[in-house]
Specification:
With 451 residues, the protein is an all-alpha fold. It folds into four domains: 45 residues, no CATH class; 87 residues, Recoverin, domain 1, CATH 1.10.238; 100 residues, Recoverin, domain 1 (Orthogonal Bundle); 109 residues, Recoverin, domain 1. The protein is built from 23 helices and four strands. A two-stranded antiparallel sheet has the order 1-2. Strands 3-4 form a two-stranded antiparallel ribbon. The N and C termini lie far apart (99 Å). InterPro entries: EF-hand-dom_pair (IPR011992), EF-hand_13 (IPR041534), EF_Hand_1_Ca_BS (IPR018247), PPP2R3C (IPR039865). This is Serine/threonine-protein phosphatase 2A regulatory subunit B'' subunit gamma.
Length: 451
């Protein structure tokens, strides 16, 4: 059936009065188009009556060759994000909100902070405008209500709550602009583009040379993917990025007066990124841009066991037996954050030689023998494996008394200590001499207090 011709004929032969408004003609045209289009596509004939009552919940993504549909989808997403952005409070509206809150303070006034009760809270909500309506609810008020005798909430706490919500929505929209797939997640290249374009807006990174940008972006992105993509799918949910503290740490670099201590502890700061990359260059003695096992053995205090390093090069991605910068970053993130589940998962995989999902006495003995050998080389008295094994099982308290799983390590909160005992001579020495070290710290503190 030629539905185009049928549509034209139907419009021409309509029995309705000749004089009709343009809107009526458009409405009829749309009705007829919908009818014949559904017939052309097969309609819904043969479907049960309940079919029409079920809302559509699946929309097929356009294929690569469906260029028009892809463009339409991109444009519709852009329009949607623009609309969402316009719904957010701008700086002028936020200032107006603060003025209204300050004007409607509820007495008695205290020197600590301005307060507002629920009645005045609702009055401000009525005057603040439609954009603020979502914040002026009983639920929000109850959430911020603590122990005030007069049933009031802090104006500053409420305003900070609004600011935080606006910031989250702004950031969500900003990240969504880089979501090429439009599925609510970012791939590695998407996050790289986001951070690369963010660099000029962060005053703390003004000193970075442009030649270092690619290494900085790689360093920053790696932390997100190491901790938020444990299954190594190559993508992270935008929701997870917003929920973690990494984005806060990154945007903290907007503060021009950020302290030196804060910069050193912030993975995303320029000093921190330069430190990690500088260590990589120092380890790379042959200057080929990659690290061999021998070069990596000098990492940190140079006391990681050869057995553990063998496992690193067996399990991690290497190129002709050498490690690139991205793989090195995963290694550093794991060893510098041994208390974190993602880091323990990384190390546990290396310790679980037979891929059984647990560590048994054989596994522990295999790795600890390398510690014992290093102790002999350094002229230290050998320690009995049986004693160490018993201490490890006592610390972890696994569900199965003969097997230690990754979850056992995480639940015990001793995973960092256990892994250090097995892979690093310096870590084992620190554990063995913990009582002496604590006593020395107490004496040093006392001496400082006396002076």
């Amino acid at each position: 059936m030629d539905w185009k011709q049928t549509l034209k004929n139907k419009l021409q032969n309509s029995n309705k009065p000749a004089k009709r408004s343009e809107q009526e003609l458009k409405d009829e045209e749309m009705d007829l188009f919908t009818k014949y289009y559904l017939e052309w596509r097969g309609g819904r004939k043969g479907k049960s009556s309940s079919y029409q009552n079920i809302p559509r919940f699946y929309y097929r993504l356009p294929a690569e060759d469906e260029i028009l549909l892809q463009k339409l989808r991109e444009e519709s997403r852009a329009v949607f994000l623009q609309r969402k952005s316009r719904e957010l409070l701008d700086n002028e509206e936020l200032q107006n909100l603060w003025f209204l809150l300050d004007k409607h303070q509820t007495p008695p006034v205290t020197a600590e902070e301005a307060m507002i009760n629920y009645e005045h809270f609702l009055k401000v909500g009525d005057k603040a405008g439609s954009k603020c309506k979502q914040f002026f609810t009983a639920k929000v008020f109850a959430k911020l209500l603590h122990n005030d005798t007069y049933g009031r909430i802090s104006i500053m706490q409420f305003f900070n709550y609004v600011m935080r919500k606006v910031w989250l929505h702004q950031t969500r929209i900003g990240l969504s602009l880089y979501d090429v797939a439009g599925q609510g997640y970012l791939r590695e290249s998407d996050l790289e583009n986001y951070i690369l374009e963010l660099i000029p807006t962060l005053p703390q990174l003004d000193g970075l040379e442009k030649s270092f940008y690619s290494f900085y972006v790689c360093t920053a992105v790696r932390k997100f993917f190491f901790f938020l993509d444990p299954l190594r799918t190559g993508k992270i949910k935008i929701q997870d990025i917003l929920a973690c503290s990494f984005l806060d740490d990154l945007l903290e670099l907007r503060d021009e007066e950020l302290s030196k201590e804060s910069q050193e502890s912030n993975w995303f700061s320029a000093p921190s990124a330069l430190r990690v990359y500088g260590q990589y260059l120092n380890l790379d003695k042959d200057h080929n841009g990659m690290l061999s096992k021998e070069e990596l053995s000098r990492y940190g205090t140079g006391t990681l066991t050869n057995v553990f390093l063998d496992r690193v090069f067996q399990e991690c991605l290497t190129y002709d037996g050498e490690m690139d910068y991205k793989t090195y970053l995963d290694f550093v993130l794991a060893l510098e954050n041994r208390k974190e589940p993602a880091a323990l998962q990384y190390i546990f995989k290396l310790l679980d030689m037979e891929n059984k999902g647990y560590l048994n006495v054989f596994s522990l003995n295999y790795f600890f023998r390398a510690i014992q050998e290093q102790m002999k080389i350094h002229g230290q008295e050998a320690v009995s494996f049986q004693d160490v094994k018993d201490e490890i099982f006592d610390m972890v308290k696994p569900k199965n008394p003969f097997k230690i799983t990754l979850q056992d390590l995480i639940n015990s909160s001793q995973g960092d200590t256990v892994t250090s005992i097995l892979i690093d001579l310096n870590g084992f020495w620190t554990y063995e001499n913990r009582e002496v070290l604590v006593a020395n710290d107490i004496e040093s503190t006392a001496d400082l207090e006396d002076t």
